[in-house]
Amino acid sequence: MIPHRIAAATAATIAALIALTACSSSSDTPSATTSGAALSGEVTFAGYGGAGGDAITSAWLDPFSQATGVDAILDPSMDNSKLLQMIESGNVTWDVAEAGLDFGLTEKNTGLADIDCTIVECDAFDGRWPVTAKGVPMFVYSTVVTYNTDTFATSGPKNWKDFLDTKTYPGKRAINAGEGFFGLAEAVLIADGVSRDQLYPLDIDRALKLLDPIKSDLIFITSGAECIDLVTSGEATVGACYNARVTKAAAEGKPIAMSWDAQIQSADYVTIPAKSPNLANAMALVAYITSTEHSGDLVNYLTYGPGNPHAKIPADKLADVPTSNEGEGDAAPIIPDFDWWNENREHVLETVSAWVAS
Amino acid sequence: MGGILTHDGGGRRWWISVGLLGLLFVVLALILPLAIVVQRAFDSGFDNFAAALASASFVRSISNTANLAVTVTLSCAVIGYPYAYAMARSGPVLSRILMIALMLSFWTSLLVRSYAWQVLLNDTGLINTLLQSLGITDHPIPLIRTPLATLIGMTHILVPFTVLAIYAQLRGISPDLAIAARGLGASRARAFWSVTFPLSIPGLAAGALLVFVLTLGFYITPQLLGGAGNQVIGQSIVEQTNTLLNTGVGSAMAVLLLAAVVVVLAVAARFLGLGRVLGIATERNSA
């Protein structure tokens, strides 16, 4: 019914739009293949904003821009579904993304670029957090037993056994329920006597039974910031918070402290979408961030451990960094098995959410 | 329908060119992405729908969302109606003050308002601190992370929609009708319930419908104020797409949500008329 002229105009407009997007994604590819040549242009780093985004900008993006002349820009709107969407649609605007092993940084993930070990120092990653086919460890963080120092002064809870003990350490506990008690399930099972080499397959039902007696004392949080807010305000007296946030809040004079015993350790990785519009710049930025020389630079702004195990850390920060404060025996770090979690996450989330709702 | 196109005497071609930009925008910004979501949902037949409905947490979120939509709609109606009535019938000064207060709240970002409620409802927040200092309670009463908190926050955010819909309707009802009823011996209450209120029901229904449908898709406010045990459909979708990376299942959930909205609108259209449901015939019918 629409007159032909208007239909034609509409078709032409749509065709032009398609042509435009096609051009913009193809015009940049030649530069991606010329590795080794001087870099120019820009590179977009997709991260999470907040204190972490500021720290990454100061520690790595700005210095990288100065060293290479490439404009490194932070886009603080990273989330897994957005990254996945970009990769699946082929309309990629991010060059480097901050992601966890839960994103699947293996060979199988064909939407991500292979890490180029002629540019990235792959051999340096001989520690706990390896380079994968598609990702390089950016920083190591841990979830630690955290407490309010107005409530417990210096005799606060030291480990996950204490975390479960609401008689000796009364008060509410702030914990993240959104990830199916990832890491925390391991922690309470170990506290209950499960030996570390027999943790998997994880007995989620047993972990939930251990949490049952303190269920009414649990506050389920959805963000790292909430953990700090609840513990510093005293609304919760104990929490399972991220280490660098605790250190930061304590430095601001807030009544909060933590214990390194049995820290639940994890790592964030940097990865590159295969269709990154600035592939060469992206690989160079990944190499810079994870280099032995620069991997430790983040510590000056946010006290997460360097992803590169050979990186140097300033002496005055040693006491605050997870990788420099690993205990032994019962106090040794707890390292969740990502392969198991990636296989079983759906089932665990269902089980945990049913428990939370009951 | 052809008559509407030439309503003001302009030709059909004229009206199409006037509407073209908007139409293009709707197609590119709404229909196209929606088509992708629908296609994703069906990318393996009905498997994604089966998986969605097999998820007990999704089924729970449906009933949580339905509960929330009903309670938010009721509380918006109960709070919104008297407000709209006062706005429509009081003197010019009070009426203007009520309108300004409503619009100030309406224009404030819902993110800001949700956070503000967080501050008020916290265990160490304003309300609990006040109750404790007055000696009404010695322990903070649980407000934040409860269904009540979500209900309060959502009602605050959505009540302007109800008020404006009812207000528009009441403004179209001549105050003379109630005066005539009173002149014939009806009490003030009788005049209201027998004359004004029945005439205002279409506005009330339209406002309630709007709030009900908007509540079905809400995410931020339940996320900030509700507890982890009261997940709503929006949160289920985010969990699928963001945590589990199941775009197909997440899309199926979104399609089911959309279908629910369409069903609600269709049922409402039967009782209220399609034009009123879509919000285009309010003025004409009430005049």
Overview of the molecule:
The complex is a heterodimer of chains A (358) and B (287). The N and C termini of chain A lie far apart (57 Å). Chain A has helices at 4-26, 29-33, 50-68, 80-89, 149-152, 160-164, 184-191, 204-211, 224-233, 243-251, 279-289, 338-357, and strands spanning 42-46, 71-75, 96-100, 135-148, 173-176, 218-221, 238-242, 256-271, 305-306. Chain A folds into 2 domains: 6-140 and 267-324, Periplasmic binding protein-like II (D-Maltodextrin-Binding Protein, domain 2), CATH 3.40.190.10; 142-265 and 334-357, D-Maltodextrin-Binding Protein, domain 2 (3-Layer(aba) Sandwich), CATH 3.40.190. Chain A is α/β, with parallel strands linked by helices and 358 residues long. Chain A is globular and about 65 Å long. Helices cover 37% and strands 17% of the residues of chain A. Chain A has 12 helices and 9 strands. Chain B is mainly alpha-helical and 287 residues long. Chain B has helices at residues 2-5, 12-41, 47-54, 56-89, 92-107, 110-121, 126-133, 147-171, 175-183, 188-216, 220-225, 233-243, 247-272, 274-277, 282-286, and one strand at 43-46. Classes of the chains: A alpha/beta (358), B mainly alpha (287). The A-B interface holds A 2-3, 6, 10, 13, 17, 79-81, 84-85, 88, 102-104, 177-179, 219-220, 222, 233-235, 345-346, 349-350, 353-354, 356-358 and B 13, 16-17, 20, 24, 28, 55-57, 60, 122-124, 140, 145, 223, 227-231, 238-239, 241-247, 250.
